[in-house]
Amino acid sequence: MEGTVKTSTGTWLAVLCSFVLATAYVTPATPRAQGGRFNAARAVEGKPAELSKVAPVIDALRRRAGRVPTPQIADPTMLADLRKADSPSGSWTDTGCVSRNEMRAMVDEYLATPDPNFFPAFGPTIPAMSVAWSAPGCGTFIYAAGLKNVEKHLRISPGTPMGLASMSKAVIAAVALQLSDRGVFGPRGVDTSVGELLSPAKVRALTVGDDPSAPHCPGTTYLYNRGTGQFELAPFDCPDLLNVTLRNLMLSNHGMYDFLNEVALPDGNFQFDESVFYSLYKYLGIDAVPPVSGRNGFEYLKAAGLKRDGGATIGGTRGRDFEASLGNTGFQLLGVVLEDVTGKSLDALIEQFVVQPLRIDPIFLQLGTEPRENTIANGYEVTTGDPLFEQSGVYPLTDLHGHTAVNNAVLGLGKPANLNLAGGAGGLVATMPSYRAFFDGFVNGGLLSPAAQSVLDASFVSIPDFDSPGVTVRVGFALVNLKNTGLPGVPDSQIIFHDGSLEGIRCFNAVVREHDSNRTFAVGAMCQNSHGSGVPSIVDLWLQFITRIAQARE
To answer: What are the CA-CA distances from residue 545 to residues 105, 107, 279, 550 (Å)?
Structure first.
């Protein structure tokens, strides 16, 4: 799991790490969790959401921040291979900036260092990483290293599209703001309710369902209680989408459960889990829910059904008012709304409102049927030591530096979509240079009109439950803003981000600003094609880039 690394700014890293750990996409447990079958009925341990999401983790990381970590040694053969095969590009200058060689070494050593806590006799668990960073006066640093396809030994390049997971949400928000700016949602813009924009038939399909004899809601199932941190067998109602606005969807305080992470089936299993590992569940004799096979996010959201969280206030600002992932249900539903009101696919909308205006490489849904599918980096789940994978023969196994791994392409969310949900929650792919340019234009200006930019800038709300000494937390449309004040060793600053995590995908973005102004001194995007653990962790590597860029400018 992500931790902290000893630097001169250890306290600052600890505080930031804690919030990242608390707000990252919550990857659903796989069947190998808890002895072969994760079951929510087993009273998962937890604490109240208002506290456990930030404060205890901050305390633990503060205690660890001053410890000297055990030195980790990168594999020299792998390092030599990386340095021979891959080189940075971009306009980055070393004058007055952290050097290109240092930034490259950070990535190379990350990829070449085995995890000492996970079968250390084997090699690293991350095939490849792609990064793109920029800073005023320094230029742009672009680097990609490793393998996009392990089986065929195909090397990654900066032009390789990678899964974005929850970093997709900012792209969907950018489209929504521009449609609102054009009056597509009516005079109230993002304050228009979902119920006004979707037809009664579509609302019914997403809530009650199509079969009156077996309604999806109301009902009873295992639900995550954000107040206690426990899964509990509890009743739920249908949400009234006339009370939920597009603003609520983009802030994630819409009063509904996260359909991926906070809702389990009545038997205690997760529907997403059963879909991803459908073949394995069948092998185990479990009557799993069949995978959805759709070309749009509506089909996936309809299969899960929307459920009202009675403990959450729509538009509220308590910790428990926000869904766990900060947007899985909200942005999956927003994607449905965008396609429905425009009659266009998300791909077409992203091309029109993001790709063409910025003149960047395509950002698109990974549906698994286009010729460009072969250009996308494959994602891998490491399965070393797991007999359900290593001995069952259900999935073909890949040798990843001595580890066993499963290529996501063989997992079971159905065809044509595989692990992307085909919608706004996490279905997009992009190159890192392209995504960095998007994120810069979205947050700092250059993509949205002045009016739309004002709506985005004014969208942030404070969440006192997530604050801690020296750090205040605000959430905006698909964005989290951490403002640190008076922490030892670093200048006061703001970090605006939304990371992403799915099977075979782990990503981070960042806009780093001065403490009391909108002046930006770093923008970055980085993704790896494995959910494996690096040394340091990817959150540490992300913070190392931010810290070194900040230190070099002092």
So the answer is: 11, 10, 40, 8
